[in-house]
Amino acid sequence: MSREILKVSGLSMRFGGLLAVNGVGLTVKEKQVVALIGPNGAGKTTVFNCLTGFYKPSGGTILLDGQPIQGLAGHQIARKGVVRTFQNVRLFKEMTALENLLIAQHRHLNTNFFAGLFKTPAFRRSEKEAMERAQYWLDKVNLTEFANRTAGTLAYGQQRRLEIARCMMTQPRIIMLDEPAAGLNPKETEDLKALIAYLRESHNVTVLLIEHDMKLVMSISDHIVVINQGTPLADGTPEQIRDNPDVIKAYLGEA
Amino acid sequence: MNRNLKSAFFSALLVWAVAFPVLGLKLSIVGINLEVHGQGPFTLGVIALCSVLMFLRVLLDKQWSAMMRSRRDGPLVPPKVSNWLTLPKTQRYIILGLIVVALVWPFFGSRGAVDIATLILIYVLLGLGLNIVVGLAGLLDLGYVGFYAVGAYSYALLSHYFGLSFWICLPIAGLMAATFGFLLGFPVLRLRGDYLAIVTLGFGEIIRLFLRNLTDITGGPNGISNIEKPTFFGLTFERKAAEGMQTFHEFFGLEYNSINKVIFLYLVALLLALLALFVINRLLRMPIGRAWEALREDEIACRALGLNPTVIKLSAFTLGACFAGFAGSFFAARQGLVTPESFTFIESAIILAIVVLGGMGSQLGVILAAIVMILLPELMRDFSEYRMLMFGALMVLMMIWRPQGLLPMQRPHMELRR
User: Fold this and answer.
1) Which CATH code for domain B84-232+260-401?
2) Which of residues 301-330 of B touch A (CB under 8 A)?
3) Contact B294 A135 (CB under 8 A)
4) Least buried of A47, B65, B264, B289, by fewest C-beta within 10 Å?
5) Is the CA virtual torsion B294, B296, B300, B306 positive or negative?
6) Domain residue ranges of chain B, discontinuous segments joined by +
7) The pTM is what?
8) ipTM surpasses cut 0.85
């Protein structure tokens, strides 16, 4: 496989006296699917928050393509091509599905004040292209017929898909999914699996995910990192993880 | 029943406690002393009647609400109609109708009526500007009047010291106010909600005090007077033109009539208000307008998508301030006099009330609310000192009956056409 895109080493996050994340390391290669697993409260989401700039890590380095990104603001990291979804879906509920996708393209649009005021041809073209891109992704996640519905009125599974589509609108390089399968039925989980595979194959996206659904994790991940109580526990391919006695003890449970 | 009786008695007593000092007593000057006199038996009788009514109302609370409920089975306006009224398309037609009325108005209305309409238009302009900040971007700004003052003083000072004309100063005043908005917004916009409200409130007061204490330049509490009125392509509306100028009535060979000036000022205000309407209408359909909406809904999601919240908030703040600057410079030109006392906190409160009363984010709502807010106190002049009391009561009732505002608007949604 190809080169490293994200390299995290010695990441730690301290909240007052609580060391929520301690010395977590992570290496992600291009077009890989890497899963972050661990029991509830292990600090997985905290790691995500550090990587995407929502928290300033207390220690460690995060290299994106060899460039340090730790300590940058959330929107700056997102602009470098690292976007995320949230554990509890965070759509703009009062806006339509289509508009949710248009917002995500904000950075790529013609936001010149006067161009918009006078509807210059360049502005119209930019808006039209945005619509087309949005339409393409609505189609990909099977939401075309709900395009004009407000996002809050969509079913839960649809909201999840819309959130992933919204991330894709920013033309990311790494997409980070926080429990994407939570609350989905088996059929929807299968669809999600196909969607992740599609993102990786057709859009060269690297995927980092937190997930509790072991069947899903084992079947799509190239690499798995296990965290327990904020510290790294194991690291390896799905097979290695499945057979690792520590992981079984801490997390998978003995069968 | 016993408990009802107690609270009914208490309510009746409360009516006395509130009404008697306000309505029942009168201060009058006797020689050099102030003396407190009771009002006549009529006023006391009215208060007594009110307290009896209140007593019965609270005593029979259950029966009363049961009666009201049975009478009001359906809502006052059928839901279909009210939904239709909030559609952007309907509101656009109503606004167009209002614009036609506004264009015809000065040629039929009396001088006083046109003057009040001009005042209303100033508040429409201010309301529309604040609507960007509060209604669209969701930033509570209690110091909006500060930008209004900046605009007014920009024109007053430029005209006073450099003799620049209104039309040159108008964009400068807008830019000045926008610059102030930008500079203030930079450190402040990381705050949210209540904190932002308090900081902006402080800022509004600082500007006013600053203008008042800068006596050498701004004339302190006396302000700046004899500010030039706008001209019509260099033609003034005064009876006699200054050196090197021509008057409007001479140029067109008309009789001098002072109402021409009033009408002209009205039309300038209308022009500014229309400009604001146009700009805001476009903004709603531009990426930045969508971003404001998104930011109001979920700031964290916005950041995760690479939108810079500070820049987006700052743009709303700056644009809103810019409109206040326009309104301010027009205000200075119309009054011919600016003093710091025109820009007290109550002005901010009135403008905010216009936005909230109209229905957040709705342009038509702002227009209607500005009309109500400015016209009502004028119409109620007959009630002299009770005017503001009634005005307050009306606003309370209004917010109880229509908490969503006079005429809220559904945002124009982008639609996917198939």
Assistant:
1) 1.10.3470
2) 301-309
3) no
4) B65
5) positive
6) 2-71, 84-232+260-401
7) 0.84
8) yes
